Amino acid sequence: MKRGDLTEKIQDIKRERGWSWRYIAGEIGGASEILVVGALLGQMKLTRPQCERAAALFGLSEMEQRLLNEVPMRGAPMPPTDPLIYRFYELVMVNGPAWKALIEEEFGDGIMSAIDFDMVMERLADPKGDRVKITMSGKFLPFRYYGAGENEQGLGYKEE
User: Fold this and answer.
1) Is 113 a catalytic residue?
2) How large is the average pLDDT for residues 70-75?
3) DSSP secondary structure string, the chain?
4) Mean pLDDT of 77-88
5) Which of 28, 93, 105, 142 is the most buried (most CB within 10 A)?
6) What is the pLDDT of residues 93-120, one digit of tens each?
7) Catalytic site residue 87?
8) pLDDT at 31 over 80
9) Can you tell me the mean pLDDT for 4-18?
């Protein structure tokens, strides 16, 4: 079985039983709803205890359970074609240079981790139409300046 086949099977069971992603993530537990759903959609991996709970919930075989614990091939072709996902791509393409400039001005030369990372999605009621609020928090990882001498800055933290 390929990972994509398991993703389709999980989506079919979800649809058949009328479950919400929130319900499924709550039953599996152990991590954020976004991570659990991402794993079930083939973009993340679950821990072994989470895999056991997912297998029990979905009635998966032992091989399918083990597959949920494997590190997946992440990502999708670029640019994305799904309109909602494309808007996130557009956000990065339009706002990315400003985010980069502001992060570097505040922290120094480095990146915001997408591994040591947390994300929360909320629905905000609004009379003009409900809003989606996404909060992202990633650890700042400074670039390392290889070969820096004893009196030279070795990491890209902001110089004070």
Assistant:
1) yes
2) 91
3) --HHHHHHHHHHHHHHHT--HHHHHHHH-SS-HHHHHHHHTTSS---HHHHHHHHHHHT--HHHHHHTTSPP-----SS--SHHHHHHHHHHHHHHHHHHHHHHHHHBSEEEEEEEEEEEEEEE--TT--EEEEEEEEEEEEPB-TT--TTS--B-BPP-
4) 91
5) 28
6) 999 999 999 999 999 999 999 999 999 9
7) yes
8) yes
9) 97
> 32, 61, 113, 137: which is the annotated catalytic residue?
113
Domain ranges (residues) in the chain? 3-67, 83-142
Using an 8 Å Cβ cutoff, are 37 and 24 in contact?
Answer: yes
Contact yes or no for 158/103 (Cβ under 8 A): no
Q: From the candidates 32, 70, 90, 144, which is the catalytic residue?
A: 90
Q: What CATH homologous superfamily does 83-142 map to?
A: Cyanate lyase, C-terminal domain (3.30.1160.10)
